[in-house]
Design goal:
binds zinc ion
Length: 418
């Protein structure tokens, strides 16, 4: 057991993290906002109130607790040899069905295990009057999330098939097989999955619709499909998205945006969303996710092999092609996903900055954009000045302070050049 000198796992993870940091640094970096814009931003976007600070701190604490709870639960399942014990009782069943059964049972177990965390999150959102989710809706959402989680079960036999066929290169074959599935999901998600959670109707406000179409035409997008979702069933927070590719491409406005945001603010937000579309962020995201997925599979293959070689007998796992290894694989995937978050967040922030800049150039109304970002703090309880570690690890968007200041800077520069 002590022979050889396998590189400790932490050193390996450290390498990934350093590579991630380097790539994160190379992402499009924010051009510094002027001191004037930063100072001016406080008029629109004051510092966080004690209540907002408390809300964000509660969320950070809950996030840390949820990670500990998730890893604790998965580690318990692995240590207790839950899957090998269950499989010993299901010996007559074909291996592919064993894999599906282990995964589905694990999903159900995890859903139940994570209930306290999800309840706590719901409680916080309700305590701050942000959630409008009824207990019935909450239960339905949990059921839907579990059903969606189980939808991925057929991937397990596919992965095991690749492991058996090519123990050295299975991660590459499986990672590549995930690409068309990922693309298919991006295309069908808006028409198959989204309607399970929300109802979508065409934007009724004709005047606003006309103006959004004009904005879209200016961006070179003909006949945009603009739909409104009934997000107010769950939250008071506002949001908008560009989703789908090709025939399912559409802009989704949450109805909360129409309720709580002014018309110029909505137009500024849509201009930002059009930036995602015109700059091909969905496609770029797809390519990055595919490459990232293959890299994570490569890392998983390496760590799985080392872990199973060393601890397999103690954990009742016969090899990496054993369905009994699925809980361990899930634990390691969660760990790898956690470690890649700084890089994924940095890439996302780069794209969001790009969409912000495009939106400003398209709508040419920095004041409206700044006002929209400021409202994300008052209406959605967004932290204007999140701590550096949180931005580094978790934030997919630049801070609201940065966004407001950049929008104000745009207006000032534009006024000068005009
Ligand atoms: Zn965006």
């Amino acid at each position: 057991m002590m022979c050889g000198s396998p590189r400790p796992l932490w050193l390996w993870f450290h390498k990934i993290l350093c590579a991630g940091l380097m790539l994160g640094i190379m992402m499009p970096v924010a051009d510094a906002q002027s001191r004037w814009a930063i100072e001016e931003s406080y008029k629109l976007l004051p510092e966080a109130s004690p209540s907002l600070r408390q809300y964000t701190n509660l969320h950070y604490a809950l996030y840390a607790a949820s990670l500990a709870w998730l890893f604790g639960g998965l580690a318990l399942a692995v240590r207790a040899r839950w899957a090998p014990r269950a499989l010993a009782r299901w010996r007559g069943i074909p291996v592919w069905l064993q894999a599906i059964a282990v995964y589905a049972a694990l999903m159900i177990g995890l859903s139940i295990w994570m209930i306290p965390v999800r309840l706590a999150d719901w409680w916080i959102e309700r305590a701050y009057h942000l959630s409008t989710t009824s207990p019935r809706q909450w239960l339905i959402d949990q059921g839907l999330a579990l059903a969606l989680g189980c939808l991925w079960a057929p991937l397990l036999p596919i992965a095991l098939h690749f492991v058996r066929r090519s123990p050295r290169w299975w991660w590459l074959h499986f990672g590549m097989a995930l690409a068309p599935i990922g693309l298919f999901m991006i295309v069908v998600y808006p028409v198959l999955i989204d309607p399970m959670f929300n109802r979508f109707v065409p934007l009724a406000d004709r005047q606003l619709r006309k103006e959004l179409v004009t904005l879209s035409n200016r961006a070179g997008v003909d006949e945009p499909t603009v739909l409104v979702s009934d997000a107010s069933r769950r939250t008071k927070k506002g949001n908008a998205f560009v989703v789908g590719i090709g025939p399912t491409h559409r802009i989704i406005l949450w109805n909360t945006l129409l309720m709580y945001y002014t018309e110029p603010e909505i137009k500024a937000i849509i201009a930002h969303e059009l930036g995602h579309y015109v700059r091909l962020h969905l496609w770029r995201g797809f390519v990055l996710q595919t490459v990232g997925g293959i890299l994570i599979m490569a890392a998983l293959a390496w760590v799985m092999k080392k872990t199973v070689d060393r601890h397999g007998p103690a954990l009742g796992i016969k090899g990496i092609a054993d369905p009994g290894a699925i809980p361990l694989a899930l634990l390691l995937i969660e760990l790898l996903l956690l470690l890649q978050m700084p890089l994924a967040s940095a890439v996302s922030r780069g794209m969001e900055r790009e969409a912000d800049a495009y939106g400003l150039q398209l709508y040419r109304n920095g004041r409206a954009a700044a006002s929209a970002y400021a409202r994300m703090s008052t209406q959605d309880y967004g932290d204007p000045d999140p701590p550096g570690w949180a931005v580094f690890w978790l934030h997919t968007h630049p801070s609201l302070r940065e966004r407001v200041a950049r929008a104000l800077d745009y207006d000032r520069r534009n006024a000068r050049s005009d």
